[in-house]
Each structure stands twice: as structure tokens, then as C-alpha cells.
Amino acid sequence: MSQENVTMVKTAYEAFGRGDIPGVLGLLDGEIDWVFPMGASDTPGTFHGHEAVVQKVFMPIPENWDNFAVIPREFIDNVIMW
């Protein structure tokens, strides 16, 4: 991942932390597939596109958690996938 990509990911996390969902969506491909495996969510499955991600991923957060936060500890810019 280039430094440009690291900056984009950091920007997405910062937007999410502010509750700026349009800002997050602006950084995600419109054809995104968000995958929740069994056991990782009350609604496991694959959610395709911005609208599905908003409805099935982002909207349930305040319904299920009072003080939800995502705070990355580290951003790694050079991951090799095999």
C-alpha cells in the first residue's frame, strides 16, 4: 500500500470517528462488498454497494452499542498478500 493509500485509510477512519458517513462512503468504491462472517455480527452476510453498507453495517451500530469507536493502533503500508 502506498503512502497515498495509507493517508486515504486514515482519512476514512477519521471520518467514521466524526460520524461523517458520507465522507466514509466517498472513499469506498460504489461496488463495495462488505463481508461479515458467521459469528462476527448479528447479521452475517455480504452487503453490496453503499446503500447496503449503510443499512446493514453502519445503521445498526448506535442501535447495538452506546459508545462504539474504532481506533486503529497501526497502519501498515507494505503488506504482501499471498
What do these coordinates show?
Strands 1-2 form a two-stranded antiparallel sheet. With 82 residues, the chain is mainly alpha-helical. It contains 4 helices and 2 strands, in the order H-H-E-E-H-H. The protein starts with a helix and ends in an 18-residue tail after the last helix.
Could you provide a short overview of the structure?
The protein has helices at residues 3-18, 21-25, 49-58, 60-64; strands at residues 33-36, 45-48. It is mainly alpha-helical and 82 residues long.
SSE topology sketch:
Blueprint: H1 3-18, H2 21-25, E1 33-36, E2 45-48, H3 49-58, H4 60-64
Antiparallel strand pairs: 1-2
Regions with pLDDT < 50 over 5+ consecutive residues? none
For the largest beta-sheet, the strand count, sense and barrel status come to:
2 strands, antiparallel
Mean pLDDT over the full residue set: 87
Approximately how much helix is present in the residues?
A: 40-55%
Structural classification: mainly alpha
Q: What would you call the shape?
A: globular
Tell me the fraction of residues in β-strands, as a range: 5-15%
- Number of separate strands: 2
- Distance between the amino and carboxyl termini: 14 Å
What is the radius of gyration computed over CA atoms, rounded to a whole number of angstroms? 14 Å
Placed side by side, the strands forming the largest sheet appear as 1-2
Count the DSSP helices.
4
- What is the N-to-C succession of helices and strands? HHEEHH
